[in-house]
Design goal:
Layout lengths: L2 E7 L20 E2 L2 E5 L5 E4 L7 E6 L8 E9 L3 H12 L11 E9 L2 E5 L9 E5 L2 E5 L2 H8 L5 H9 L4 H4 L9 E2 L4 E6 L2 E6 L15 H21 L20 H7 L4 E7 L4 H12 L18 E8 L6 H10 L5 E8 L27 H9 L2 E5 L4 H5 L5 H7 L7 H10 L4 H4 L1 H13 L3 H11 L13 H8 L14 H15 L8 H23 L6 E3 L5 H8 L3 H4 L4 H12 L14 H14 L1 H7 L4 H4 L5 H12 L6 H19 L5 E2 L13 H9 L1
Parallel strand pairs: 14-15, 14-17, 15-16, 17-18
Antiparallel strand pairs: 1-4, 1-10, 2-19, 3-4, 5-6, 6-7, 7-8, 8-12, 9-10, 9-11, 12-13
Helix pairs in contact: 3-17, 5-19, 5-21, 7-21, 11-14, 11-18, 12-14, 15-17, 22-25
Length: 705
């Protein structure tokens, strides 16, 4: 786990070293395993196994007596040193957007005198947290270290909102699972000056009433192509890293080659690799990384390196048979001579919910559904490379959220609704119900377009207390789209929360409805919220399934790719197959034209089948997990109700499996947090108490009172 942490205060010194590489004498507190980037009066540390090229600092010489101006960029950044200097000068004049315009995924921190600026990203994959501390403000890119710093307890109200309305920012607010630790929204920057703080946005927000000028579809798609190609190129041009010293190889093992033995020892392969699931997103990244033209030092200017082939990893779940089409597409794509294809086959030992370590497993910043998929993801990633591409975020960045249909009606573009509505009716199949789908969807979109922000949130708050009495949703595309055509809707786990917890979240929505805010268009607001939720989940996946010496790269979540995708016209986004068509255009721009049949076919059914199989195989362990759950101690669920739902889902009842994954991952996270020992800080003034779940019982009383 890697993070950065610093603080700003009225005090001129906290006893930290004034220059990087100085003596430890005089330090009163510092993070465990840290590297000091700059010292007092406003110190900044990098913590964890950062690579040397992932930490870049730039300082601009100023006149004598002028304030210090310096910039730290942590992560994968494609900017040159000169571009960093220009960005620092622009930030000194207040142009924060320059700090977020470089290729790659990174966090930028600027210090101008006593003014500190920390810029978050647009998606939310690299968030920034802060908390009041010692007469000032401490900030970090992880919430748990700040919770340790202030000895925070759990915020049960935030956990309730995370389960009840995970894609509603109004319910989550700026909170975290820890009391007193806050998160800045995506697209914003935290500005600190001698302890005082300000949160400001650096990205323009579209008006609810007037649509922003749109690019023509060809130029918009070309912009996505250029941004994605540059995002991949930035990773390819970065220095290569070999894994650290590995455990000794036990020697030949029947049925296992060198790559399999290395993966079994938990170490990635040196070089660059990519997922190749058969889906359009991972395939696009694999083909771009394998054959991107114009890279120096390669044969004919192609490939990932001279004589080097890109490692393409396909995960083969032997317990289900619904993924044969995906595997076949992956095999066809892997016939590319620049790809070295590795298939990771796994059975019941890698199903969802398999091998849940209740106490000694990885502790992440917050709960996420990926916690019940750790063994599955770790097996896939261990077979990958030291720098590994994943296609996470493509669906949320490029696809159209169903609520965008309301945006089209606001702009009086009714004719653009014909194709998406017809596709929904076709997906329903030949039935009497499908004949009414177009009219039903149109009415729902028109209702959302005519519903104000305040009215929509108040209506959602009124419906939320009844969420635990809802009947199971049907798994048809039309039903899912209709449910999404609203300002806010309950999450899949809401049906199992207690009335007290739902009432608490309902109050949050009611308060948000009357709070002044810059209201966006409904479709755009829902799409950004869904992207933020997915990016947060990807970040937790990185922490939970982390393989030492490996870096996961998700170019679709980069700032420049997100910006380019937001410039796509609404009318293009809502068309069926838009994502596959855009990625086909991206590959065509890189000289790749031949793609296998079925390119861009959705694959949700595969993951659903695997989840249900894993739930059935791990039912005894899950029942034991909810025998006396901490969620029940906090007043969020009733253990009997959850156990009944687990049994029903394992028997095939159409319950929302995502909601059960949310409950299981949150309970698992709480148990690991309680069993945690130690702290992120050391030194004479370090806090002696760790962030624990000791506030579970008091929080239950506050919910009931």
């Amino acid at each position: 786990m890697r993070w950065l942490v610093g603080w700003s205060s009225i005090a001129a010194s906290f006893g930290t070293v004034g220059a990087v590489g100085g003596s430890d004498e005089g330090r009163t507190m510092h993070p465990v395993g840290s590297q000091l980037l700059w010292g007092d009066p406003d110190p900044l540390w990098a913590v964890g196994d950062w690579r040397p090229d992932e930490i870049r600092t730039v300082r601009v010489d100023t006149a004598e007596g002028a304030p210090t101006a310096r910039l730290a960029v942590l992560g994968c950044c494609g900017a040159t040193d000169e571009q960093l200097r220009v960005g620092l000068l622009a930030a000194r004049g207040g142009a924060l957007r320059h700090l977020t315009a470089w290729t790659g995924s990174y966090t930028a921190v600027v210090q101008i005198g006593r003014r500190i600026t920390v810029a978050g990203d647009l998606a939310g994959a690299r968030p920034v947290f802060y908390t009041p501390w010692a007469g000032g403000t401490a900030y970090a890119t992880a919430a748990l270290p700040l919770a340790d710093l202030i000895e925070a307890q759990l915020d049960i109200g935030h956990l309730a909102a995370l389960l009840a309305c995970p894609e509603t920012p109004e319910a989550l607010r700026d909170g975290t699972p820890y009391e007193g630790v806050k998160r800045i929204p995506p697209g914003h920057a935290l500005i600190l000056r001698e302890g005082s703080r300000e949160i400001t946005g650096y990205e323009a927000v579209a008006s609810l009433a007037v649509a922003a000028p749109e690019l023509d579809p060809v130029s918009a798609v070309d912009g996505v192509r250029d941004a994605l190609v540059e995002a991949v190129r930035a990773r390819l041009l970065a220095p290569r890293h070999a894994p650290e010293t590995l455990p000794p190889d036990p020697g030949p093992v029947p049925g296992m080659g060198p790559a399999e033995r290395r993966a079994a020892r938990g170490a990635p392969v040196p070089g660059i690799g990519s997922d190749l699931s058969g889906g359009s997103a991972s395939a696009t990244l694999a083909l771009l990384a394998a054959g991107l033209p114009g890279l120096p030092g390669t044969i004919l200017g192609h490939g990932t390196g001279a004589g080097e082939r890109l490692l393409a990893v396909t995960f083969n779940d032997l317990t289900t048979r619904a993924h044969e089409d995906e595997l076949e597409r992956a095999r066809v794509i892997a016939t590319n001579p620049r790809l070295h294809h590795v298939v990771v086959a796994a059975g019941e030992e890698a199903l969802p919910y398999a091998d849940l370590d209740l106490e000694s497993g990885p502790l992440t910043d917050e709960p996420a559904p990926s916690l019940v998929l750790v063994e599955r993801n770790r097996r896939r990633l261990s077979a990958g490379s030291a720098d590994h591409f994943v296609g996470d975020g493509a669906r949320q960045v490029l696809d159209a959220h169903p609520a965008r249909l309301a945006d089209l009606l606001i702009d009086r573009r009714r004719r653009h609704l014909v194709r998406p509505v017809a596709a929904l009716a076709k997906a329903e199949g030949p039935s009497a119900h499908s004949l009414f789908v177009p009219l039903t969807v149109y009415r729902a979109a028109r209702r959302l377009a005519r519903t104000s922000y305040r009215t929509g949130l108040e209506a959602a708050a009124g419906r939320l207390p009844d969420a635990n009495r809802l009947t199971p949703d049907l798994d048809t595309p039309a039903d899912a789209s209709l449910a999404a055509l609203t300002w806010s809707r309950p999450g899949p786990a809401a049906r199992w929360l207690t009335g007290e917890a739902l009432a608490e979240v309902s109050v949050r929505l009611q308060e948000a409805a009357i709070r002044p805010t810059s209201v966006q268009r409904p479709g755009e607001a829902r799409a950004r919220a869904a992207l933020a939720r997915h990016a947060a989940g990807h970040r937790i996946l990185e922490q939970a399934a982390e393989v030492r010496s490996q870096r996961l790269h998700a170019p679709f979540l980069d700032n420049q790719v997100v910006r380019a995708a937001r410039a796509l016209p609404e009318s293009l986004r809502v068309q069926p197959g838009a994502r596959a068509a855009i990625l086909r255009r991206v590959l065509a721009g890189a000289g790749i034209h031949e793609l296998p049949p079925g390119w861009g076919t959705p694959s949700q059914a595969t993951s659903t089948a695997a989840t249900r199989t894993g739930l059935r195989a791990s039912l005894p362990e899950l029942i034991a997990l909810f025998d006396a759950p901490l969620l029940a101690d906090a007043g969020l669920v009733e253990a009997r109700v959850v156990r009944k739902a687990l049994r029903a889902a394992s028997e095939g009842e159409p319950l929302p499996l995502d909601g059960l994954a949310d409950l299981a991952s949150t309970e698992l996270w709480l148990r690991r947090l309680i069993s945690r020992r130690g702290t992120c800080w050391t030194g004479t003034a370090a806090p002696r108490q760790r962030a624990v779940a000791g506030g579970v019982a008091p929080a239950r009383r506050s919910l009931q009172g």
